[in-house]
Amino acid sequence: MKTRKQFLKRIQFPQLSQADLYMGNTFDIYGRRFRITRFGDKFTEETLSQNSERAFLMIKPDAYINMGKIIDYIIVQTQGLRLNRVQMLKLNDEYARKLFGAQDQATYQRPYFNEIFKFLCSDVVVGLEVVG
């Protein structure tokens, strides 16, 4: 049984702006929760990707006690930055070396690198993806 009724209608929703439309964001429209998981087409991806950049920040073990202040600063004090993802984990030596990204073995032979890796693996670290 087909009816010729309109199913969806375009409306303006003033609480939502284009700045809110970024990958990973969750928002509510009339009581229904939506999460942006991917771009609908190539044009939208190219258009919205030009307006934002991503950066990775790591809160190291010695700054872990100030994690709340750091995240609060990013959210409240900075203009145009927002947190996209946050993950807390305890690194092992192998993952810390991959994360550090040195390409050659000679870099790892420097004396301070082993101290850096030991420090990063000593306690939990918090990884933050910041979009702005």
Automatic annotation (TrEMBL):
Gene3D superfamilies: Nucleoside diphosphate kinase-like domain (3.30.70.141). Residues 1-52 form the DM10 domain. It is found in: Cell projection, Cilium; Cytoplasm, Cytoskeleton. InterPro entries: DM10_dom, NDK-like_dom, NDK-like_dom_sf. It comes from the Eukaryota. PROSITE patterns: DM10, NDPK_LIKE. One of its GO terms (cellular component) is axonemal microtubule. Pfam families: NDK (PF00334). Keywords: Cell projection, Cytoplasm, Cytoskeleton. This is DM10 domain-containing protein.
